[in-house]
Design brief:
272 residues; alpha/beta; Rossmann fold; 2 domains; six-stranded mixed β-sheet; three-stranded antiparallel β-sheet
Length: 272
C-alpha cells in the first residue's frame, strides 16, 4: 500500500483569469454524462485535478473515518459527493485541503485546493470584504495588483464594489459568495465545498449553485469543484456524482442513476 503523511502536492498557475459576469440570475440546466464512459469528455494531455488512492484516516479513538478510499476527478467541472453522516465526506475534504494528515495512502492534486466551509462565519475573519480577501492573496504583489486581484474576485461572485463593506452587514448568501471570492483570489483551481448551501435560504442556495456551476463551465480556465451535499435535488446540476459509504467513495455516476438508488438523506451538520 502506498502511504504518505505529507500534505497534498500542489502546483499553482499564475495565469490571470478574465472577469466573468455574475451568474446568479442564470437558469440552471441539468447536465448529463457521456453514456459510453460515464464521464464527460476530457483531454488526454492534462493530469487529473485530483487523485486520491488508498487513503486512510483514523481519529484518536481508533475509528476509521476513511478506509482505503480511492477517488479521482478526471477533469474540470462540478462533482458532487453524497452520503449519510459519518460516511467520511467532510474528513476527505479536510485531508485534501491539508487541514488533516492521512494515516496512509496518497493525495495528488494538479491544482491548488481551497476549502469553503458550510458556515461562512467560520472562515471570514476580518471586518470588511476587502481586508478578508487580503488574507488569501499571494505574496509579492504590488498595491495596485492586490487591488485589481480583489476587485476581480469580487466581480466574479457578484459582489463588485464591496471592498469596504462590513462583513456583518452581508446576507448569508453574500457571505458564502465572499468565501468563494477568497478562494478565487488565492488562485485556487480546486474548490472543496462542504455543504455550502446547507444554512442558506432557497434563493441564496440557487445563487451559490449557479455561481459554482458557471465558474466550472466557463470557456477559459474552468474551475474544478468537489461539492458535498445532502440536497439530492442539487445532483442534477453536476457533471458526476458519487456516494460515500463507510469511509469509501463509490464510482462516478450520472445524477439520475445515483439519485434513484438513494433513500432521502437527512440534512446534517458537524459531520466527521
Amino acid at each position: 500500500m502506498r502511504r504518505s503523511t505529507h500534505p497534498p502536492q500542489v502546483s499553482r498557475s499564475a495565469n490571470p483569469v478574465e472577469p466573468q459576469p455574475h451568474p446568479a440570475s442564470l437558469p440552471l440546466s441539468p447536465l448529463t454524462l457521456r453514456p459510453d464512459s460515464g464521464m464527460p469528455p476530457q483531454g488526454d494531455q492534462l493530469p487529473p485535478p485530483l487523485s486520491v488512492a488508498d487513503l486512510v484516516f483514523r481519529w484518536s479513538n481508533g475509528h476509521a473515518a476513511l478506509d482505503h478510499c480511492d477517488l479521482e476527478i478526471p477533469g474540470s467541472g462540478l462533482w458532487m459527493l453524497v452520503g449519510s453522516n459519518g460516511s467520511g465526506k467532510s474528513t476527505l475534504l479536510r485531508l485534501i485541503a491539508g487541514l488533516l494528515q492521512p494515516d496512509g495512502g496518497t493525495i495528488h492534486t494538479s491544482l491548488k485546493p481551497a476549502l469553503v466551509f458550510q458556515n461562512p462565519d467560520h472562515q471570514l475573519l476580518l471586518p470588511s470584504c476587502g481586508s478578508d480577501l487580503q488574507l488569501g492573496l499571494p505574496g509579492g504583489l504590488s498595491g495596485a495588483e492586490r487591488s485589481e486581484r480583489m476587485a476581480r474576485a469580487l466581480q466574479q461572485v457578484g459582489l463588485e464594489g464591496l471592498e469596504r463593506r462590513p462583513i456583518h452587514t452581508l446576507s448569508g448568501g453574500q457571505k458564502q459568495r465572499l468565501a468563494i471570492a477568497g478562494a478565487l483570489a488565492s488562485e485556487a483551481g480546486l474548490l472543496l465545498l462542504d455543504e455550502p448551501t446547507a444554512l442558506l435560504d432557497p434563493d441564496s442556495q440557487r445563487e451559490v449553485l449557479a455561481l459554482i456551476r458557471s465558474l466550472c463551465s466557463r470557456p477559459t480556465q474552468p474551475l474544478t469543484a468537489l461539492w458535498i451535499t445532502h440536497r439530492l435535488e442539487e445532483l442534477v446540476h453536476c457533471d458526476g456524482a458519487a456516494r460515500m459509504e463507510r469511509g469509501q467513495a463509490g464510482p462516478w455516476q450520472d445524477a439520475a442513476t445515483l439519485r434513484a438508488s438513494l433513500p432521502p438523506l437527512p440534512s446534517g451538520r458537524g459531520e466527521r
